[in-house]
Write a structure and sequence with these properties.
The longest helix is centred in the first third of the chain and has 20 residues. The chain has one domain. Strands 1-7-6-5-4-3-2 form a seven-stranded mixed beta sheet. The protein is an alpha+beta fold and about 260 residues long. The protein is built from seven helices and seven strands.
């Protein structure tokens, strides 16, 4: 089993255990690991500071490849299985753009296991009760992500009720949000089954050459509170997985950009 770093705040063990078990048992966490490993490797192989690549380029490029890899492994978006598609056509679509190793190690998941479930324009993937969005944090510490400085969608996700808190009536939640942010109210999608929205936070740190992947429940931290109700590091082996070009050499790295310029 991979060594992971786990940080749990308060008594959120029940939701944490449920999310990790359910998403792990069905292969979703393994799919995120594969997609990130592929995106990280491809991004670092293309990185060249002499052409002007910087921390912002790393974050944006990794995001674009990461989302495409997730659609590929989950059979969503451009890679959605069509009824008139032959097996050969399907294999060609999925394998194009991947190395042989990437294709052979890609988890095989049934179509429909995970659906594309965007939130206010932010790309997301949902397995039953768990929706996952992405967030880059290159150049920062994962526990110092300031959700109040992110997009309206991410701020809304961080304002989800405390996992330990008993469910409140919708009108009470709306009043709390209105009091906190004026007219900037997070509007969840109108669905019969409300998902819990998690965030998969990823980073390629330009200054150190390290990479990270975490899954967790963000927490509003406008006043310096902890950034997560719970989180778990899920990248298998971090940077020491033997991938060629998998680690950015710090000696080649220019000074990182200010933190407010790094995230998507």
């Amino acid at each position: 089993m991979y060594d992971v770093v786990v940080a749990i705040y308060g008594q959120r063990m029940s939701e944490y255990a449920d999310a990790i078990r359910e998403l792990g048992d069905c292969g979703v966490i393994r799919a995120f690991q594969w997609a990130w490993g592929s995106a990280r490797k491809s991004t670092l192989k293309s990185f060249d500071p002499k052409t002007g690549h910087d921390q912002g380029w790393l974050g944006y490029t990794a995001y674009k490849i990461f989302t495409a890899r997730l659609d590929r492994v989950f059979s969503t978006g451009h890679f959605e299985v069509r009824s008139n598609q032959s097996q050969a056509e399907r294999q060609l679509l999925v394998s194009t753009g991947l190395s042989e190793t990437e294709y052979l190690t890609m988890p095989t998941l049934p179509s429909g296991l995970v659906v594309h479930d965007d939130l206010n324009g932010s790309q997301g993937w949902r397995r039953e009760n768990w929706r996952t969005l992405l967030q880059s944090f290159g150049g920062q510490h994962v526990d110092r992500i300031m959700w109040s400085q992110k997009s309206q969608t991410k701020r809304g996700v961080a304002r989800q009720p405390d996992p330990d808190q008993q469910p409140l009536p919708r009108d009470v939640l709306d009043l709390r949000m209105a009091a906190d942010l004026g007219d900037e109210i997070f509007a969840p999608p109108e669905t019969a089954h409300q998902a819990v929205t998690l965030v998969c936070a990823y980073a390629i740190h330009l200054a150190s050459g390290e990479t990270e992947l975490h899954l967790g429940r963000p927490r509003q931290n406008r006043r310096g509170e902890k950034a997560w109700y719970w989180r778990k590091r899920i990248d298998p082996g971090g940077d020491n997985d033997g991938d060629e070009g998998g680690v950015l050499q710090p000696s080649r790295a220019p000074s990182p950009l200010p933190a407010d310029k790094l995230t998507l």
